[in-house]
Each structure stands twice: as structure tokens, then as C-alpha cells.
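Entry 14. Structure prediction run on the chain below.
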Amino acid sequence: MFTQLNPPLPVFIVDKGKGLAMGVIDYGPEHHLIWVTALDDSGEIWCAPNPKVRMQGNWTMGRGKPETGCGGRGE
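Output returned:
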């Protein structure tokens, strides 16, 4: 199933950088969600697996900068 995100969500892709997630692909219970993301710096569009996706910081919402390491531990 493909779900278009409206509005797109600002995310950080580990090892790729900041971007806007435009959609999510769900292949079912045995798979990670796949985030279809346009990267800010290069304009490339990548399909990133859920463990590599972090929400960008949002001062208004009280959310700090994302941890960028594997497993969300800042490694």
C-alpha cells in the first residue's frame, strides 16, 4: 500500500541527510515501512527503510535535533 503524505514531513535519513518525506510504502507486517523522501541537498529521491528515518527537530513542538546513528542511539 502507498500512502501519500499531505503535507510532506521533514525528516532526516541516516547517512543521507535532511529531506521531505512525500509518501510511505507499507509492504505488510513482515517488512519495515519505506519512506519515499526527496533529499534537500541533492534533490535525489530515496526510499528509506523505517530504521533509518528520524523526524527533524521542531522548536515549536519541543522536539530536538534527531539522533543520527544506527538504532537511534547517536552512534
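The chain is about 0% helix and 45% strand.
Filed with the rest of this week's runs.
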